[in-house]
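Box 3.1. Reading complex inputs
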Amino acid sequence: MQRHLISAADLTRDDAVLILDTAEEMARVADRPIKKLPTLRGRTVVNLFFEDSTRTRISFEAAEKRLSADVINFTAKGSSVSKGESLKDTAQTLEAMGVDAVVIRHSASGAPYRLATSGWIDAAVVNAGDGTHQHPTQALLDAFTMRRRLVGRDAGLGKDLDGRRITLVGDILHSRVARSNVDLLHTLGAEVTLVAPPTLLPVGVETWPCEVSYDLDSTLPKSDAVMLLRVQRERMNAAFFPTEREYSRRYGLDGDRMAKMPDHAIVMHPGPMVRGMEITAEVADSDRCTVVEQVANGVSIRMAVLYLLLGGNEPAVSHARPTEEK
Amino acid sequence: MDKQQDQQQEARPVLEGPDIARVLTRIAHEIVERAKGADDVVLLGIPTRGVFLARRLADKLEQITERKMPVGSLDITMYRDDLRMHPPRALARTEIPGDGIDGRLVVLVDDVLFSGRTIRAALDALNDIGRPRAVQLAVLVDRGHRELPIRADYVGKNLPTSLRETVKVQLAEEDGRDTVLLGAKPAAPGAHP
């Protein structure tokens, strides 16, 4: 039996709704004076971060500690990885220490999948972002934020995002957040539209379960949520658009553009935001922008995922896709 | 042989609707009597059926005391000691009344008291939420077979059972009718949920 969360595409609708509902209960723990549950007492979780990410790591760490797990943080910098140790050797070291779960962030797409399926380690593997491939807990926390804002906190329990129209704007090519979101939102019944310059769309995007547009202004009036993606300059090895100014003019969200959105529509961003380029300060600081909520929701979602994968003697989350990988 | 006969035996009702209403009324009066007016009582039901019973008790207490009775629910799933013996369960709702439980008399309400492990988990959960003045326990049915030194303060009906029997509580809010059924346990032996 598999007990990993590698890709948002692995989740069935029922799994995804179960995770969102569980996260809603976990969010209540955050409102209490003692934000701790004994659920994972005696279990060891390793945060294995081969790529820098303070935000995701502390989010996972907070979730693990709130569930009383023993947490080991591993960053590649200054470890034996910089001396040339392979992923396999690292995994076998962790296995020998009796680790129950590994939360892995890696710059290589597919590293978590390799770790989960190679037989090197018996622990549950949770993908915390691999290359340009997937970031499933980010997609889940985004869906959670949308459900809370668009359907309602208590009214949303048991429900998906059927018929909601979500627009993702920006650097789709380099974005694991976009890939994970398209997969999950499609599973949850939402209609997704990608808006980006043609140079920032991946080959084969026409096979994804979503619409593609190059024109942000015409998409805004029919969007329930608009998610801006960070332009990932660190992954860009060529010129994908002429100037930042032009990108900002065509694909950035400012106050005037936000006014074209329906009144109930929300603005989302996975962070970190590049203010002035993808989003103006006016939009980022408005009460329609959910960036800070997304961070808080991230802890609840990660608690839910860890509870459902590790809380019992077998995971509660099933797997739609058994072995093949994109 | 015996077992097969048991399994064929129909579950028989030991408490019907009017009996349940009557024992809840009695428990409500006992709470008022023991808590000397029930001024600081908070009722917390344990999902699923304990919550319905807590609400019914609150209604009855309101009739007696003519005061609004704070009532909530306490999910104990995350505090169970058998979590790792089963797949993880979906969580139920924990709702603590606005004024909290600090310094109050918390009455936990559940449908069946069996091993006592659920109540142990509930006491742990309470510990994380606040510090009540005292905690009491009200159950509709006490079927015995305790595995921990825990007893109820208010019992609707003491029901001596064998471990081969099951006690099933049905309430109108969830099951469409009020009844307590005593039946034979199907096949594999396992712990009380």
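In summary: Chain B has one domain: 3-82+92-184.
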